[in-house]
Design goal:
Length: 177
């Protein structure tokens, strides 16, 4: 089994980085949700706060790496324009999708939507990481801050999940060789 350079980058972008982001979400949301005074001893606070901070920063970095590799490495291959007179569109995924009315919606709806929503995840993840870094231990007593943070976290997860699902389906319909 071998992968082309393009397939390898698609795996790094979607499966590796995107997968880490989506899987890390569970730990982050549970960590934020469990930051309640009644659940924590001083030792628990000392243990959870740095873990939540490191997890939030790593999550933001992974979200940015996912979007940047998608935007600047994988996406240009997807959008490549075939030379005039090309009949085999297998190496030109966007053109391949648009050439058939049964697959055109994968570009006109799914990819266009993915292009816009994918950028939301790293911005939200960075915001969550910043708030955790800035407020740290204060989040234990400030439920009014934790709930919006969990909401931002959930929005980041939703944006990344939808982008990932659309990306997987688009790649299935028109792979990047």
């Amino acid at each position: 089994m071998s992968l082309t350079d393009r397939e390898l980058w698609a795996v790094i972008h979607g499966l590796f980085l995107g997968g880490i982001f989506l899987l890390s979400f569970t730990g982050g949301i549970v960590g934020l949700h469990s930051l309640k005074e009644r659940y924590l001893t001083p030792a628990g606070v000392a243990e959870r706060t740095p873990r939540l901070l490191i997890g939030g920063v790593v999550l933001a970095i992974v979200a940015w790496l996912t979007v940047l590799t998608g935007t600047f490495v994988v996406y240009p291959w997807y959008r490549a324009v075939p030379p005039e007179g090309t009949t085999d569109l297998a190496a030109f995924p966007k053109s391949l999708l648009l050439s058939d009315s049964t697959t055109a919606a994968w570009h006109t709806f799914a990819m266009e939507w993915k292009e816009h929503i994918a950028w939301m995840a790293p911005f939200l993840a960075t915001t969550v990481a910043f708030v955790i870094l800035y407020y740290g231990i204060q989040l234990i007593r400030r439920q009014e801050m934790r709930r919006p943070l969990m909401g931002a976290f959930a929005l980041a997860f939703s944006a990344a999940a939808v982008a990932g699902i659309f990306g997987a389906f688009i790649t299935k319909a028109a792979p990047i060789y």
